[in-house]
Amino acid sequence: MVEITVCGSAVERAAAERATVTVQSRWSAPSPEAAMHAVAEAHDRLVTDAEAHEAEGAAESWHADRVWISHHEEWVGEGQPRRSVYTAAAAVTVRFRDFEALGTWIGRVGLHQTHEVGGIQWSLSDATERQRARAARTRAIADAVERAGDYAAAAGLGAPVIDAIQEPGTMPPGPVAPKGRMAAMAMEAADAGPAVSLEAGELEVRAAVEVRFVADALRHDRGSAGD
């Protein structure tokens, strides 16, 4: 009996269904009160927008769990005393279902000097990710079976039988950087400000599995030689 150990893998693809973006309100001023006041007003506008998007169904969820203030001394000129500068910031993160609504919102908030828009993180819905992961795992097993069969045939062995299955390492399947159709961004005119047209690329869900097989050597009958 011969052991054959192979690694099977598979990739499932699906169009992005969710887009998560973080918008930060940030302002610097000579006093902490002035910096915090400007940021508080800007942050309130973002929270109001996030609540409205969620209520309308354009967003799946949102949270605002980051706020900070810092201080540094700014050089003014030779022989001049340094000037104190206080910087305050707060952030709102929204997970959108509606990419058109997201593009419109980015175009609008980008008009304010206090707002900084971070990168967009594309993802699948939980249900789609589970479905694609299940399909990838099934195909990974089939890939391992095919590989083991090829090795067994090449080595002159019988049909391999699965003896053990194990996931290699700790690499859970999940979306990676968009491939194929890349995320495209283009500016369009709108009354409330420029909207951003967003098209998400396909995301990949990967699965890998290590499978150990056993196979018997083929027996070749030999005829008896006559006297």
From TrEMBL:
Transmembrane regions listed in the UniProt entry: none
InterPro entries: 26kDa_periplasmic_antigen, SIMPL/DUF541
UniProt name for this protein: DUF541 domain-containing protein
Organism phylogeny: Bacteria, Bacillati, Actinomycetota, Actinomycetes, Micrococcales
